[in-house]
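[agent] plan:
  1. take the single chain provided in the ticket
  2. run structure prediction with default settings
  3. attach structure tokens to the ticket
  4. add a short note for the reviewer (M.T.)
[agent] executing step 1
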Amino acid sequence: MTKTVIDLFCGAGGLSEGFRQAGYHVVAGNDFDTAAGETFAKTHKEATFLPGPIENITPKDFLKAGQIKAGQLDVLIGGPPCQGFSVYNHQRGMHDQRSSLYLEYLRIVDGLKPRWVVLENVTGISSAGGGEAVRAIIKGFSELGYQVEARTLKAEEYGIPQERRRVLFVGNRVGLPIGWPEPTHGPSLKPLVTVRDAIGDLPLLENGEEFGGKAYRSAPKSDYQKAMRAQCKAVTNHAAPRLGAINMERLQHIPQGGSWRDIPFELLPKGMKRAKRSDHTKRYGRLTWDGLSSTILTKCDIHWGAYIHPEQDRAITVREAARFQSFPDWFEFTGSRTEQYVQVGNAVPPLLGRKLAETIFRVEAGEVATPFELQLTG
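[agent] step 2 finished; step 3 output follows
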């Protein structure tokens, strides 16, 4: 019997794409972002997309969209908007209105009564309010009859070519143990997937060059490239943002692995001329072929992070950012280029979602030991 998923705050659908790759059937999704909703609808044709603020949607709306009854849904997934908890928001905390959107998630949980729940958020949630946010979320699930655990996962340990940390809440109401995916990449495991492994086959671009639907630069040269390309014959969402003349002059001085510190003082932006050498470590950073991508944010702006191509003097494209997030190449993002970057940066890497989904499958199949069994065998 096919397992079912509904995705709240779905964005473009990175988490649901991962569950779909693991064999789940995505029946519905919701987001208030119009452009992200268009991408979700286009890439999840089997699902019903419910647009608009979650506050305006009832559990019955989701049940109708998914053609299911309360208690029949296998997994409810989602990532409530996280800006209120982000480490980039220095005023973060429970007072931020966006921080309370997890209550909407809990409201839908109460109405749908899924077997499993998966909620994703930024690591800043762990320190927000002195840990109040994490405690409140777990308490909220507990009051609805769910045993839930929270854990911080590192994307690169699961074959994703990016330094990315996210907090995951996973739980169920059916008395099964909580399982977590075992890392597959790192010391004593498979080598980390590098920037070269991820984007080395994508076409060359000049600064500001538009590139639509043309062939790849080369045959796939890594297992990761093969997986991302699947049967695709052309590249989409691959256009270089146009950088101004002063930024192009700055880029000439930045080697692989370098940053704003390599730019001559007289060429630095006015505000950065007052910066300490220990500040802004990622600004004007150029990626290295043999390293990981820095965390993909909603703006791949070179002034704010390491988003310069390893050898081409330009910022990374939406497609390159999507590769670092493990989106397959057939997954095309709609909307303006700015909106596309937002969709990619907000997403849960599909590969991480797939690992979580596969773990839930194994738990339900009895392949993950219960705490009692672990105690007996420990």
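[agent] step 4 note for reviewer: Residues 84-96, 371-378 have pLDDT under 50 and may be disordered.
[agent] ticket updated
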